[in-house]
Amino acid sequence: MRTDLFTAKEELLTRYDVARVNRILRLRELYERMLAEPDIKDKTLVDDLTTRYGIRMRQAYEDLQQVKELLPQLQQASQAYHRHRFNEMILEVYRKAKAEKDLRTMERAASSYARFNNINEQDTEQLPYEDIVIQPFVPSSDPRLIGIEPIKNLDEVKRKLLKQLGEFNPDIEEINYEDADIRN
After folding, report:
1. Reduced to 3 DSSP states, what percent helix, strand and coil does the chain have, rounded to the nearest 5?
2. Nearest-5° angle of CA 14, CA 17, CA 20?
3. Which among 12, 63, 22 is positioned nearest to 42, based on CA atoms?
């Protein structure tokens, strides 16, 4: 449903039932109103939704909460859209100026395009990933490799701890396991 917030009403009606389409349209209007009036109070929005659409306050607050959750995600996607739209507009100005042989407008459009897309900056140098050598890794159960001395009679220490802690904590239970099949 998040991807359908700006889909045309006719297309929504082919996908969803009327109640869901009405909710999507309510959310769309609420989103646009929150963008247009960022300082508007929640109470005002809820009151408007209840009177305009005849829904209960609970539903209005749910709609408001959903739009507030969507707002950051949509603004991020919206920013990418507006960048693309700006580039398209500049290119259109350039094409029209070229057709009219208006060199001054062509130069301003090209300059604006270059400035907006940071063409004058150097590209960042790519890291040579193909030169990275994978370090060999050999699994081991020897704790001395990381500087820890092994515990003598480890099984006996485990049994003592289990007996000691098991008396005070009845929630501890023995879990069976299988050794991993490590093949070289």
Report:
1. 65, 0, 35
2. 115
3. 63
Give the contacts of 70 (CB within 8 A, at least 6 positions apart): 2, 5, 27, 31
Q: What is the dihedral of CA 106, 110, 113, 117, to 10 degrees?
A: 170
Per-residue model confidence as pLDDT tens for the chain (184 residues): 556 777 788 888 888 889 898 898 898 888 888 877 777 888 999 999 999 999 999 999 999 888 888 777 656 656 666 777 788 888 889 999 999 999 899 899 888 888 887 777 776 777 788 888 888 888 888 888 888 888 888 889 988 887 777 666 666 666 787 877 777 5
Q: Which residues of 164-176 are buried (b: 16+ CB within 10 A; e: fewer)?
A: eeeeeeeeeeeee
What's the rounded Cα separation, in Å, for the pair 23 and 63? 8
CB 67 within 8 A of CB 27: yes
Q: Do residues 36 and 18 make contact, with C-beta atoms less than 8 angstroms apart? A: no
Global model pTM greater than 0.70: no
**What residue segments make up the domains of the chain, in order of their start?**
2-116
- DSSP structure class, residue 172: -
